[in-house]
Amino acid sequence: MKSHTYWASALLVLALALSGDIQGKVVAGLQPAKLAAMESHWETTKNAPFYLAVVPDEANETNSVEAIGIPVAYIGLIVAVDRLFDMGRTCLNVTGDIACSLCVTKWESKKK
Question: Would the pTM count as exceeding 0.85?
């Protein structure tokens, strides 16, 4: 029973990652305005900075607060360093998924 839970968890984690990546690429290709809205940009522009904290003002179609704007040129540096942090986040995520799967398996075995 445990092996089924492990395989199901592994499959679902991979499917979730693949699904998110595919959806992001589809939105970027087919609906660039929607992607700009997700990033809190009111107009699509090239080389728009990435803001870490934004408070939108819908009435004026602008952002009332744009804090910590990172220029596109520096995103590459963040991506290079983020890989290390991402590995840690991924390990923590997978560990949590496995722990939840083990708990559910244990609870289901007690019901029988």
Answer: no
